[in-house]
Amino acid sequence: MSQARQPEAGLALWRLATRLAAPVLALHLRRRARRGKEVPARLGERRGEGAARPPGRLLWLHAASVGETLSVVPLLEALAERAPDLRLLVTTGTVTAAGLLAQRLPDALGGRLLHRFLPLDVPGWVARFLADWRPDCGVLVESELWPNLITAAAARGVPLALVNARFSARSARRWRLAPGLARRLLGAFRLVTAQTEADAARLRACGAPEVLCLGNLKDAAPPLPAEPTALAALGAAIGDRPVLLAASTQPGEEALMAAAHERLLAAHPDLLTIIVPRHPERGAAIATALEAAPAQRPVARRGAGALPGPDTAFYVADTLGELGLFYRLARICLVGGSLVPHGGQNPREPARLGCPILLGPHTWNFEEVVGRLLAAGGAAQVVPNPAALAAAAGAVLSDPTRGRAMAQAAAAALAPEAGLPGHLAALLLGLLPAAREVNAAFPHLAEPTATAGRERG
Q1: DSSP β-ladder status, 160-165 and 137-141
Q2: Mapping DSSP to helix (H, G, I), strand (E, B) and coil, where does residue 409 land?
Q3: How confident is the model at residue 103 (pLDDT cuts 50, 70, 90)?
Q4: CA 260, 331, 319, 232 torsion-angle sign
Q5: What is the pLDDT, as a whole number, of residue 29?
Q6: Is 41 left (phi over 0), alpha (psi -120 to 50) or beta?
Q7: Among 106, 165, 407, 447, which residue carries the largest CB count within 10 Å?
Q8: What domains are there in the chain, each with its CATH number?
């Protein structure tokens, strides 16, 4: 098959497969809703329904999950500040991301932002979404390359941007199996910005015509917040006890941290280990497993409304959006997803709050920033076994000076890209049509009502 025909054949196969899969995907969505992974009343949005296009210029931005969503909040503010007439449609792929957007969205954006869940990549579903919303620009964040969505938007003449792109060596290898399709999709973007030069090089090699390396929006994100009353209550409950935090853990990591906790008790008999699972719905199962362990240490669960008591060994913090509390109270933290082959979670968050950082060996999701932290002495990397974890954590718990030095080195290594959101906002606004062109195209749209304002979560 010629290279010219290869992307069309690949797209045709994908379109056929997703059309045939639509009934199964509808059942899958209902199963996810029963497990709390979808909002039952909003399943129609996953089929492209539920549009309520406001008048004027509309920029659509998609941030799949929690990290992407939080990283674009400063960008949303910069867009709103620079274009007072602009309306914003934000789509997410997860309920968790939608909830955090509702929590972190500045009040100043008020009625200018609407939230929807992104439709699954079924041709008819994405066509309905695009036809009803009629965005004037589409912005995809990090690595969301959905063939039907991208090609349908490009066919409608929607200017597309891929921003803060993360394109790992693993992703590049996969896309090289379908080089024509990769070129077709990446070539649809009028603007591509990458997090690192390595990401930019891989994107160019796979067909992106021009890539700018502007830095990482996550470096410009503000520190995670902490509700003052909750922080005071938790701090009072903990008192002077040393705190070891396991943040955003994946299955298998809690058992390793529990075993490390046992090894640390000889030197730190009043140690409190806080475990924050990446997925809060796992909290009850984690607590049950910890209670059933041979040592039978006392466990408290935040999701059940409990605070740690003086004898609590493990505090399972199975709530949403409260990591800022625990980073402020911990003497050292393990950034989860790194002890098991998951790729790691975001180490910037503890670094911004002065919490010394431990990392396992599996950090490919944040390869560049982890490299910076390790080179600066702002984090320590350990092998995934209890003895190594206990030794690394104990070195900081026993020596506060060492912990402060790590925190200072991490802060210096991650100097914020303060001007990046504004720079990127200016580039995106350059893709939009003038306001008068949009107003002429939609004269039938009435002014928005109060109910057409911000819809959160």
Answers
A1: parallel
A2: helix
A3: confident
A4: positive
A5: 97
A6: alpha
A7: 165
A8: 28-220+418-452 (3.40.50.11720), 228-413 (3.40.50.2000)
Q: How many CB atoms lie within 10 A of CB 138?
A: 27
In angstroms, the CA 206 to CA 180 distance is 9
| Catalytic sites, residue numbers | 68
Long-range contacts of 442-446 (CB under 8 A, 24+ apart): 442/53, 442/55, 442/134, 445/53, 445/54, 445/55, 446/55
> What is the DSSP secondary-structure string of 133-149?
H--SEEEEESS---HHH
Contact of 358 with 390, CB cutoff 8 Å: no
Instruction: Give the C-alpha separation, 62 to 90, whole Å.
Output: 6
Distance of CA 77 to the CA centre of its chain: 18
Q: How far apart are CA 393 and CA 261, in angstroms?
A: 9
Contact 334, 389 (CB under 8 A): yes
Structure-block tokens of residue 21: 């899969």
Residue 15 DSSP class: H
Instruction: Specify the amino acid at residue 35.
Output: R
Burial category of 211 from C-beta neighbours within 10 Å (exposed 0-12, middle 13-18, buried 19 and up): buried
Q: What is the tens place of the pLDDT at every residue in 110-147?
A: 789 999 999 999 999 999 999 999 999 999 999 889 99
Report yes or no: 136 and 57 within 8 Å, Cβ to Cβ: yes
CA distance 377 to 265: 26
445 pLDDT exceeds 60?
A: no
Residue of 419 and 300 predicted with greater confidence: 300
| CA–CA distance, 142 with 138 (Å, rounded to integer) | 13
| Cβ atoms 188, 154 nearer than 8 A | yes
Alpha-carbon gap, residue 192 to 182, rounded angstroms: 14
pLDDT digits (tens, 9 = 90+) for 326-376: 999 999 999 999 999 999 999 999 999 999 999 999 999 888 899 999 999
Residue tagged 């797209």 (tokens): 11
